[in-house]
């Protein structure tokens, strides 16, 4: 299995690059952000709890993320899985490793997209015009950056200890960045 975690700050292009990776390598796509937005749209108990946190720019609690994953992740992904926006905390690293161990597999690579904050802010404010996302406004974006620095960055250290992190410059055209990611995957 080719199991990839696409990692990086809010607005770094994870969603855009995921589409290319899923098609090219035939992977199952798991985006916890998309799954949470589905739960919100369906007005489930999980969705109602998550919305309060997402609208403030916080991270949804690990307990809810576990429930989300249990509900949506099946145990047959022949070619591999692409995780977008997960893991986002230290605890979630253990959850991910556990899920993959149950499949007699492990994480192949974590791709860390680096983009400066001023560019991220511009991109997300631009995206807000069409995304309709309630968390794409300046105040909430600043909170999302803070959560990323404090809770999510330690995830990189966790996988660096396993020698699985490849950091990529996330500034450029969609095609340029896609090529950088493919170069990494083909080198492992
Ligand atoms: P995203 O679509 O990945 O930018 O996620 C949007 C929002 O959903 C984030 O700002 C968090 O509030 C929440 N979220 C998504 N994935 C996770 C996760 N793995 N852990 C905690 N919160 C998450």
Using brief descriptors, characterize the structure shown.
single chain; alpha/beta; Rossmann fold; 5 strands; 12% strand; globular; binds adenosine monophosphate
What report would you give on this structure?
With 188 residues, this protein is α/β, with parallel strands linked by helices. The protein has one domain: P-loop containing nucleotide triphosphate hydrolases (Rossmann fold). It is built from nine helices and five strands, in the order βαβαααβαβαααβα. The protein has helices at residues 14-25, 32-41, 45-54, 62-72, 90-102, 117-131, 138-152, 154-160, 174-186, and strands at 4-7, 28-31, 81-84, 109-114, 165-169. The protein has a five-stranded parallel sheet with strand order 2-3-1-4-5. α6 packs across α7 (138-152). It starts with a strand and ends with a helix. The structure holds adenosine monophosphate.
Strand order of the largest sheet: 2-3-1-4-5
At the fold tier of CATH, the topology name is Rossmann fold
Count of beta strands: 5
Number of domains: 1
Instruction: State Rg.
Output: 16 Å
Give helix % range.
Answer: 55-70%
Question: What is the annotated CATH architecture?
Answer: 3-Layer(aba) Sandwich
Count of DSSP H/I helices: 9
- Give the low-confidence spans: none
Chain-wise SSE layout:
Layout: E1 4-7, H1 14-25, E2 28-31, H2 32-41, H3 45-54, H4 62-72, E3 81-84, H5 90-102, E4 109-114, H6 117-131, H7 138-152, H8 154-160, E5 165-169, H9 174-186
Parallel strand pairs: 1-3, 1-4, 2-3, 4-5
In short:
With 188 residues, the protein is of the alpha/beta class. The protein has a single domain (2-183), classed as 3-Layer(aba) Sandwich (Rossmann fold), CATH 3.40.50.300.
